[in-house]
TrEMBL record:
Signal peptide: none annotated. One of its GO terms (biological process) is methylation. The lineage of its organism: Bacteria, Bacillati, Bacillota, Clostridia, Eubacteriales. InterPro entries: DNA_methylase_A-5, SAM-dependent_MTases_sf. This is N-6 DNA Methylase. Keywords: Methyltransferase, Transferase. Residues 7-68 form the DNA methylase adenine-specific domain.
Amino acid sequence: MGSPYEKKYIELTDEDRAKVVETYHNWQQVGDENTYENIPEFCYSAGYDEVAEKGFTLVPSRYIAFVNRDENIDFDTKMKSLQSELQDLLVQEEKSKEELLGVFKELGYEIKL
């Protein structure tokens, strides 16, 4: 949920805020089992006994299931993709370097490396 801004922040969109409000209101309704459902990484309805069992702490990570996205990454595939991207960048860098050195040489200011 949300739209990233700056490097490490996420801002909820109007649709995201509407989803949170709707979920909260559905959870408060009598007969909420028809309108509310627990959603991993979003919401969880804990009963009194469960909260008591956890020492009455309300830290979300004690109740909401979080998915470790790092475990779902195929390391070999990801590294091959990164390797290919880096190779392309290095080829482009070399080409740009040759062009730049050629321009300086044409201007009479050859750079020798």
